[in-house]
Amino acid sequence: MRYPIAIEPGSATQAFGVVVPDLPGCFSAGDTLDAAMHNAADAIAAWREALCIAGEPMPAPSELSELRKRHPELTGWIWAEVRAA
After folding, report:
1. Domains of the chain
2. How far is residue 74's CA from residue 27's CA, in Å, rounded to a whole number?
3. pTM strictly above 0.85
């Protein structure tokens, strides 16, 4: 399953921030874009594990185009998809 993520651009002094809009409270970061995406996959896996322990189902991922429309506050962020581990 692939989940859309939104990545706040980083800089030489600031990490790339990542949110997973389909999974409230699921976020990550990384010093590089590649690290941010890798860490996002780990964050999704941890979120899924917490749901499993709670006996809750994992939400299905939304279409990336729909998330972009629903989250104008993330305009200027980099959108991607990562495979849930």
Report:
1. 2-83 (3.30.160.250)
2. 14
3. yes
